[in-house]
Write a structure and sequence with these properties.
With 520 residues, the chain is an all-alpha fold. The protein is built from 22 helices and four strands. The chain has one domain. It is 73% helix and 2% strand. The strands form two sheets. The protein has a two-stranded antiparallel sheet. The chain has a two-stranded parallel ribbon with strand order 3-4. A hairpin with a 4-residue loop joins β1 and β2.
Length: 520
């Protein structure tokens, strides 16, 4: 074998392109090294150290942005798309850490490894966002997943937390197996695991034979099973309500937001880049999954009296709305997905952090009745929660409204390619938004119009949580009132992806799947 040599300038460029992951891992290791030397009463300082790590990682995104290109023999792609998603997942991690500092004290589980796991998981999500090779994507997926499994079971004395960790681990392992089988089949049909190289080979086979290899389409289907699990798309969402309810609330805030953003980023690279010419095949898979996801999420949320579980079903529904934009298979659709994810992370993390505070010790106050009169007892907290709920509903002047607007607009823009089916999908999404109004408004009504709960003694909102809620609330309003800058960045991110070959105007209108051929 010929040894691969990397010059010093090239190595420095590689390190700059993965600067956020390096920073996150270094701070994670520092937290673990320092932890044994910190007295138990002072361990909350480790949370602030981890939060500082997310701030430095956020700053290092600018370092990566200044050195665009491929890193480590094209395994990682640092482009505008990757940079945009990095910012989303790092912000989500930072807010989750702020919401965890006092929560861990309250639950008696203040340990440094918690913050280290959050940082390692975020580093894995960053790899997912920039992966240009499927095995590299698998490594990022496992970095994120294994850390998440442990975080779900961090309340070791709570059986709900242990059950959540076990369910997430077992079902996540099956999903990972599907993902790996999909990678193997794509490699078998194209001879490569590089996303951009697979695109070129599949287009060559399509031009030469007039059809796609069946093995490649089967591989894409298996990859969708594996990644659909991570974004809680139906019919792979069954684990989400139990896992989100049983996990520590700050962990749920992270799980419901950042991994979804990173996984959608990988799905966009695979579906839009490698399999862009097969858009008329996977469009129907996305269409059916979007409809099922929206209805299952919204109808499931309707009957919940546990607010945390209701927000879990809400997360499922929002995955469906994102799939509506995903189905567009255009740059406008990608920009809509990215903008939606930016808004979704802020409002969903904010909502779960309010649940973190109201739940009190042992997370015993999670029912709708426990929120009765919150508007009188803690008006600022109730106002923040109302904002996040109305944003999730899609009220104008919030990021949630414009997120849905751009998603529906992106889908309708592709009506020329997909006909009335896209219009039908948008109508179904609008109907589901109306259904969602009931369970969001019900919580607001309980906070302001139901009699106050006599057994609830308000506790002071911790400073770290105040900072997190303030950032989430301001961000939600900013994206709803002044969306131009972020949407422009989302469009630039979408444009940075190599979607079409020269002379191509989009997906073919008639794709034929080739029968399986003999193994090479």
């Amino acid at each position: 074998m010929t040894a691969v040599t990397i010059s010093l300038p090239e190595q420095i460029a590689n390190l700059r392109r993965i600067a956020p992951e390096i920073v996150l891992c270094i701070f994670g290791m520092i937290v673990m090294i320092v932890d044994p030397f910190v007295k138990p009463a002072s361990r909350r300082a480790l949370g602030w150290l981890a939060f500082a790590g997310t701030l430095v990682a956020l700053a290092s995104v600018h370092v990566a942005a200044a050195e665009m290109g491929f890193a480590y023999s094209r395994l990682i792609s640092t482009d505008n798309f990757s940079i945009f998603v990095h910012v989303i997942v790092i912000v989500a991690a930072g807010l989750a850490i702020l919401g965890s500092i006092d929560y861990l004290d309250r639950e008696g589980i203040q340990r440094g490894e918690y913050y280290a796991l959050v940082l390692f998981a975020t580093a894995g999500m960053g790899i997912l966002a920039g992966a240009n090779e499927l095995i590299t994507a698998f490594i990022g997926l496992e970095m994120s997943s294994i850390s998440s499994y442990i975080l779900c079971g961090f309340r070791r004395k709570a059986k709900e937390s242990n059950e959540a960790a076990m369910k997430y681990f077992l079902l996540g392992s099956f999903a990972t197996a599907f993902f790996l089988y999909g990678i193997a089949m794509i490699y078998g049909s194209t001879g490569t695991t590089f996303i951009d190289a697979a695109k070129a080979e599949l287009e060559r086979q399509l031009a030469a034979n007039g059809h796609f290899p069946a093995l490649a389409i089967l591989g894409l289907g298996l990859i969708f099973v594996g990644l659909g699990f991570k974004v809680v798309a139906a019919p792979f969402q069954v684990y989400a309500p139990d896992v989100y309810e049983g996990a520590p609330s700050p962990v749920t805030a992270l799980l419901a937001s950042a991994p979804k953003a990173a996984t959608f980023a990988l799905m966009i690279r695979i579906f839009y880049v490698s399999f862009h010419s097969a858009g008329d095949i996977w469009f129907w898979v996305i269409w059916i999954s979007a409809v099922l996801t929206m209805f299952i999420g919204n109808l499931g949320a309707l009957v919940q009296t546990n607010v945390k579980r209701m927000l879990a079903y809400s997360s499922i529904a929002h995955a469906g709305y994102i799939l509506v934009a995903f189905a567009a298979s255009t740059e406008l659709g990608i920009a809509a997905v990215l903008f939606y994810l930016a808004a979704y992370v802020l409002m969903k993390v904010g909502a779960f952090l309010v649940v973190t505070h109201v739940g009190q010790e042992g997370e015993k106050r999670l029912n709708l009745q426990d929120y009765a009169g919150l508007g009188m007892k803690q008006p600022a907290l109730a106002a923040c929660f109302s904002l996040f709920l109305l944003a999730l509903l899609g009220l104008p002047a919030t990021g949630g409204f414009l997120g849905k607007f751009f998603a529906f607009q992106g889908a309708l823009d592709s009506a020329r390619a997909h006909g009335g089916w896209v219009v039908a999908l948008v109508i179904i999404a609008a109907v589901n938004s109306v259904i969602g109004a009931y369970y969001y408004v019900r919580v607001i009504v309980a906070m302001y119009f139901w009699p106050q709960s006599s057994d609830y003694t308000p506790t002071r909102v911790a400073p770290a949580l105040v900072v997190a809620l303030f950032i989430a609330a301001i961000g939600t309003l900013y994206l709803g009132i002044v969306p131009g800058r972020v949407h422009s960045l989302a469009e630039s991110a979408a444009h940075s992806l190599p979607l079409q070959s020269a002379g191509s105007n989009g997906p073919s209108n008639a794709i034929v799947i080739a029968p399986p051929q003999n193994a090479r």
